[in-house]
TrEMBL record:
Gene3D superfamilies: YVTN repeat-like/Quinoprotein amine dehydrogenase. Residues 269-284 have a biased composition (Basic residues). WD repeats lie at residues 32-74, 334-376, 507-549, 550-592, 593-627. This is WD repeat-containing protein 17. The keyword Repeat applies. The keyword Methyltransferase does not apply. Pfam families: WD40 (PF00400). PANTHER family: WD REPEAT-CONTAINING PROTEIN 17 (PTHR44464:SF1). SMART domains: WD40. Keywords: Repeat, WD repeat. Residues 116-146, 263-300 are annotated as: Disordered. The lineage of its organism: Eukaryota, Metazoa, Chordata, Craniata, Vertebrata. It comes from the Eukaryota. It comes from Alligator sinensis.
Length: 1251
């Protein structure tokens, strides 16, 4: 199973966000899951950025190491609820359990006594003295919970305390006295969290909630009118304070929800520096030259606030980094669940929407293309255990809660329109809306009833069970049949068309309570059930029997999902943190994934992409997965244009033991019907529709829309949501202008700008006025600039000259760029400085904005002003259409690279197709290992994509070189021109018996094995080495090719002028010798030499392709083989070491530090590297230069931790297991390795096949 993309975090985990410095973008780096309860406090080590501590509601404190992404120590005897934890560094940073107390004592732990209860403290709280209560509560029994505590970083005695209702106090913990009480501007304000500002002693910030009150008049019976106030909404307010003032310095209303946590970064995140377009510092004064303008400061910054960044966490799950100086978000993830997610469902008529139900009392609806929440329910529902979309386009969701019964939520209107209370105060564990009869909704509850009602609340049936009912599911083949799962370990089936309240069937067999049940969508009468006994059982209603038991989970089973196309494919999720994929025909577990960090609860299948599924978990994430790798032969059958019988079948054929996968669902049948309606060449549409069916929703639809535009399809046929994705360059500006017209009535306020201006120097202002009256306009302008009055200076600057006005505009834009101020945009556009504006956007990671500006310039929507000068018309420097077009392609490449390095190769390809760079689009698909999609798109695009399509077909053929798909590999290679050599390699590697080998030879139009032996001997006699090697490999004695080929390669690399092109064809051909022959004892010397030569040449190929992550590993691999095995090759370990050092030095891959500053390469290193480069020559497919990044490469894994045997580092993203079943490398490294060296990194002689 392949992880595709990542959803939302976090309730009971530690999470680490880091900035991608190349794109100024925050990315999730790690999710670390050890706490079983909600995390209540987090504190970073002040002197080690890799270490932090966390505490949870179960009184557990954990010390984490972020670099190693693991817990390094635990403290589980705090005995109290930990409200604050703060690390003080003592001694070294290395932590282990034995030296916990020596390293990290004293730990300052403050216990919130308001949260202590008799269960947590058997002695009760009477012996605990409450100290430092707010003055207003002294002498009373009233409680006012402490919501936040922070020690003063400069004192071990001073403590900042926030109470929920009575505000903030600075107290002396030694003398138990209050030093200062701080006042809020409104009685409706409260504080949830606070933090000191490390860079400004005495300054702190608070995060709180302010209730917005609505004033209205109410008409009473006596007709008198009076004012009343009602709470209207909440606002999350960030306030900035100084201990010298009792009122806040500034207030920022950041979100329509309260704060959950707050932290001030001790230093702001480093950002990508601007290019050489940034202005240089001017040291002259206004009396002699240009004025030096003051920096733009807000009033409160000028007062006392240094620039600072606050990490903000909100009650609705939002997380962001707020720049307090610029008053804008550097990063904001707007919404997210903050607790366990129990259920998830795709919207039936719009599968781009995914709904989730959570312990936090909300349902959220996500756009899976942007992975953002677009709707959220009102909340305050207790726990929401289950949800169900209304059928069709009703746009409603039914929800099941722990305390408020069931409800129907109108999603667009955001209102609850119906509630069901038949279960009383008992929790409802499951709710199911019938999709065959939209008027019926079923609920099951802890009261032992499964109730069937109409949507208006009329009860149709009440089915009594002997214990709590946890799950129910409507049959997809019979609208009157429903199954239930019960705590009494049984599965029941009820038939609604009768008046009986007794079940038609009762299935017994589970040894613990049954939770969910699911009917098969493709096999009538088949259903499955998941139980706390850790098994999934398959039941046949027609036979009244259990037909299979799926064993493998080690904890209760919760999530269940049938695939809607492959009738025997079932997916289950469990409390053992895993998702398992089953072949229900024989009970085989096809795959197990461990990426979730906690119990897996909900599973759901995408309605129109049946091999895309979503899962949700107690780790509060939603994850999207692709099941396509499990049906690869089927996908290749479509590409190879096999008959319909090998693609689509009926259920009976598909469930036969050992039958290959066949599509049996509605989506595939609909595609076949549409293809059958077409006339002429239907291959293109067939490839497109099946590609969209089998691909995950990460941009494949967008890609096919762009292909249609390039192929000349009429724009009117483009889908309505085309403008939401990456558009072709000819549409981009047009769609954006249309959007702008829609927004003309909306006044938009810009970020930043401040709420005042710096104080003015009265004497300079007076002098400026005098210069103006004397007609000295330029001097006036310079003084206004010095005073920061840019607008006044610019308004009269044309009176000097238009050239001076433009120069002044450029100076202003330079200053604003230095300040990273959005106000720079109109200045750049007015002066026609497109390049500067594109650079500004690019430097901030706003690549889509940069692309739009570049495209607008290409369409002449930004004509440079023709400014008159004394020499005639003004001609801007180099700003012509050719420059703009070059700029457009440059920005498009940058945006594509951003998507690609984020693990989204399909969207990267879309960026290139948008500017019709087909070569790079195909290259990114191949480098992302989207081979099937590359072949499909390349086939439709035709000649312009032919070279890349043929390479993708060759890689796919290598993928098919397994036990059951050799014929498919041959079919794929036959789709390429000049395919004889590729077919030779296929037949040479085929491991069958002589008769089977001859059959494959015949299919590939090659001579039989005996004839090949004769041809080899003939070619050897004539001195044709390549033909000799080729025919020996195809013969009954392939090992005879080894000494001939290896000797030739050794002679080549012994010479001084050899190149990769002179040896690669021979080594590549030799690498296809059948494995069972290569590993023979008599071939050991030649095998060792072949592995060493392939390793060395692979290292050079990796350098040529810029596979930087595996170059050192290939050199090390080659050196180790040289060291350990008796061989005679013209290579020395010292030479390899020198070459690796030279490559590192000359490509500046050695990281400089304070202890070891960067040193330039020596002359000898330059010479060595120059020799290497001369041997490499050019890469035939230039677009393939650069590392591979498969989908999901940047996604953090939870419990599935693997260390790469190549790098020794933890692998992030998909892994690839080597032939010993234990050693692993990242899938990216495996793909790159296999493209330059066919043999495994373990040195066994086994070929690598990660494709």
């Amino acid at each position: 199973m392949e992880l595709m993309m990542y959803g939302q975090v976090k309730a009971d985990e530690a999470e680490d966000q880091t900035m991608d410095h190349r794109y100024n973008e925050f990315k999730l780096q790690a999710i670390m899951s050890e706490h079983k309860k909600t995390i209540t406090a987090i504190s970073w080590c002040p002197h080690n950025p890799d270490v932090f501590a966390s505490a949870s509601a179960d009184n557990l404190v954990i010390i984490w190491n972020v670099a190693e992404q693991k817990a390094v120590a635990k403290l589980d005897n705090t005995k109290e609820f930990v409200a604050l934890i703060q690390l003080l560094e003592i001694g070294a940073h290395t932590i282990n359990k034995e030296i916990w107390y020596q390293q990290f004592l004293p730990l300052k732990l403050l216990l919130d006594k308001s949260k202590t209860n008799s269960e947590q403290d058997p002695q009760g709280s009477k012996s605990q003295k409450h100290v430092l209560r707010p003055e207003s509560l002294e002498g009373t029994d009233e409680e006012d919970p402490v919501t936040a505590l922070e020690w003063d970083p400069l004192s071990t005695d001073y403590l900042l305390v926030a109470n929920l209702h009575n505000g903030i106090r600075l107290v002396d913990s030694e003398s138990l006295s209050c030093i200062t009480t701080f006042n809020f501007p409104s009685a409706a304000a409260s504080v949830q969290c606070l933090a000191w500002v490390p860079s400004a002693p005495g300054m702190f910030i608070t995060g709180g909630t302010e209730i917005i009150l609505t004033y209205s008049r109410k008409k009473y019976i006596n007709q008198e009118k009076d004012w009343k106030t009602t709470p209207d909404s909440q606002v999350g307010v960030l306030r900035i304070w100084n201990v010298s003032r009792t009122t806040p310095i500034d207030n920022f209303k950041l979100k329509k929800t309260g704060f959950h946590g707050l932290h001030v970064l001790s230093s702001p995140p480093k950002k990508k520096s601007l290019s050489s377009h940034s202005p240089t510092k001017n040291h002259h004064t206004s009396s002699t030259s240009e004025a030096v303008p003051p920096p733009t400061l807000t009033q409160n910054q000028a007062f006392s606030l240094p620039p600072g960044h606050a990490v903000c966490c909100f009650m609705d799950g939002g997380v962001g980094l707020y720049d307090m100086g610029a008053k804008k978000w550097d990063f904001l993830r707007d919404l997210g669940h903050v607790e366990t997610i129990f259920d998830c469902k795709f919207k039936p008529d719009n599968p781009d929407l995914l709904a989730t139900a959570s312990f936090d009392g909300t349902i959220k609806v996500w756009d899976i293309n942007t992975l953002t929440a677009v709707y959220t329910s009102p909340g305050n529902e207790g726990v929401i255990y289950s949800l169900s979309w209304a059928p069709g386009d009703l746009n409603c969701i039914a929800g099941a809660t722990s305390r408020n019964g069931g409800f129907i939520w109108d999603v667009p209107k955001g209102k609850m329109i119906t509630r069901f209370s038949e279960h009383g105060k008992n929790g409802i564990f499951c709710i199911a809306w019938s999709h065959k009869d939209s008027k019926r909704i079923a609920t099951c509850s802890g009261d032992g009833y499964c109730i069937i009602r109409t949507i208006d609340g009329r009860v149709l049936h009440k089915y009594k069970h002997p214990a709590a009912v946890f799950g129910c599911d409507w049959s997809q083949n019979n609208k009157d049949m429903i199954a239930t799962g019960c705590e009494d370990k049984n599965v029941r089936v009820y038939y609604l068309a009768t008046s009986s309240d007794q079940p038609l069937k009762v299935f017994s067999g589970h040894t613990a309570k049954v939770f969910h049940v699911r009917w098969s969508p493709l096999r009538e009468g088949i259903l499955c059930s998941g139980s706390d006994d850790g098994t999934v059982r398959i039941w046949d209603y027609t036979q009244d029997a259990c037909i299979n038991v799926l064993s493998g989970h080690t904890a209760p089973v919760r999530g269940l999902m049938w695939n809607t196309e492959i009738p025997y494919l079932l997916i289950s999720g469990s409390w053992d943190y895993t998702i398992r994929v089953w072949d229900t025909r024989d009970g085989t577990c096809l795959d197990t994934v461990y990426d979730h960090g906690a119990d897996v609860y909900g599973l759901t299948c995408h309605p129109s992409r049946p091999f895309t599924m979503a899962s949700c978990s107690r780790d509060s994430t939603v994850r999207l997965w692709s099941l396509t790798p499990l049906i690869n032969p089927l996908q290749i059958n479509i590409l190879a244009d096999r008959s319909w019988d090998e693609i689509i079948g009926n259920t009976d054929r598909a469930v036969e033991a050992g039958a290959p996968p066949l599509l049996c669902g509605k989506v595939s049948r609909d595609i076949k019907q549409e293809v059958d309606k077409l006339s002429g060449n239907t291959r293109g549409k067939k490839l497109q529709w099946f590609s969209e069916c089998l691909s995950p929703p990460g941009g494949s639809k967008n890609l096919w829309d762009l292909v249609a535009v390039i192929k000349g399809q009429d724009d009117s046929l483009l889908p309505q949501n085309y403008c939401k994705g990456i558009m072709h360059m000819k549409h981009l500006v047009r769609f954006k202008m249309s959007k702008a017209q829609e927004l003309t009535t909306v006044k938009m306020s810009k970020f930043g700008g401040g709420i005042g201006a710096p104080s003015k120097d009265e004497r300079l202002k007076e002098a400026a006025e005098i210069h103006l009256r004397l007609g000295q306009i330029q001097r006036y302008c310079e003084l206004m600039v010095e005073l920061g009055e840019w607008d006044k200076a610019l308004s009269v600057a044309p009176g000097v000259s238009m050239k001076y006005w433009k120069k002044l505009m450029q100076r202003r834009s330079d200053q604003l760029i230095q300040e990273e101020n959005d106000d720079v945009i109109p200045y750049c556009i007015a002066t026609g400085d497109v390049k500067k504006l594109v650079t500004f956007f690019t430097s901030r990671g706003q690549l889509k904005e940069a692309l739009l500006v570049a495209q607008a310039a290409c369409e002449a929507n930004m004509p440079t002003p023709q400014l008159s000068t004394s020499n005639g018309s003004f001609n801007p420097d180099g700003n012509n259409m050719e420059d703009y077009n070059e700029l457009l392609h440059k920005v498009s490449k940058e945006l594509a690279e951003w998507y690609f390095q984020d693990g989204r190769a399909v969207l990267a390809a879309c960026c290139h197709l948008a500017v019709e760079n087909i070569e790079l689009a195909m290259a990114h698909l191949i480098r992302g290992n989207e081979l099937e999609l590359a072949v499909s798109v390349g086939t439709v695009l035709g000649e312009s994509a032919a070279q890349a399509t043929h390479y993708a077909l060759e890689l796919l053929a290598r993928k098919c070189m397994t036990v059951t798909t050799w014929d498919l590999a041959a079919d794929l290679l036959m789709m390429t021109p000049n395919n004889e050599l590729q077919l030779v390699k296929l037949c040479a590697f085929y491991p069958g018996c002589a008769a089977e080998i001859n059959d494959l030879h015949e299919k590939c139009n090659l001579p039989g094995v005996e004839e090949c032996l004769q041809l080899a001997e003939t070619a050897e006699g004539t001195g044709d080495l390549f033909e000799t090697i080729k025919y020996y490999l195809l013969s009954t004695e392939p090992e005879k090719a080894l000494p001939i080929g290896i000797q030739y390669v050794k002679e080549q690399i012994s010479s001084s002028d050899w190149t990769l092109d002179s040896v690669c064809p021979y080594l590549d051909l030799l690498s296809y010798i059948r494995t069972e022959r290569l590993v023979l004892h008599k071939c050991s010397e030649f095998r060792n030499e072949l592995l060493i030569l392939c390793g060395y040449i692979g290292a050079l190929l990796a350098i040529r392709r810029q596979y930087n992550s595996i170059v050192p590993a290939l050199y090390e691999y080659t050196s180790q083989l040289l060291k350990r095995r008796e061989v005679s090759v013209p290579l020395k370990i010292e030479w390899l070491s020198d070459e690796l050092d030279a490559w590192r030095a000359c490509t500046q891959l050695v990281k400089s530090t304070d202890e070891s500053p960067y040193t330039p390469p020596s002359d000898s290193q330059r010479m060595i590297y120059s020799t290497l480069v001369s041997r490499m020559q050019e890469e035939p497919l230039k677009g393939l230069i650069g590392p591979d990044y498969v989908t999901g490469s940047n996604l953090p894994s939870h419990s599935d931790v693997h260390i790469s045997c190549l790098t020794g580092l933890r692998i992030q993203g998909p892994v690839f297991f080597l032939e010993d079943g234990k050693s692993v490398i990242s899938l990216n490294d495996a793909l790159m390795w296999a493209k330059v060296n066919a043999f495994s990194p373990l040195g066994t002689g086994i070929r690598l096949n990660p494709f």
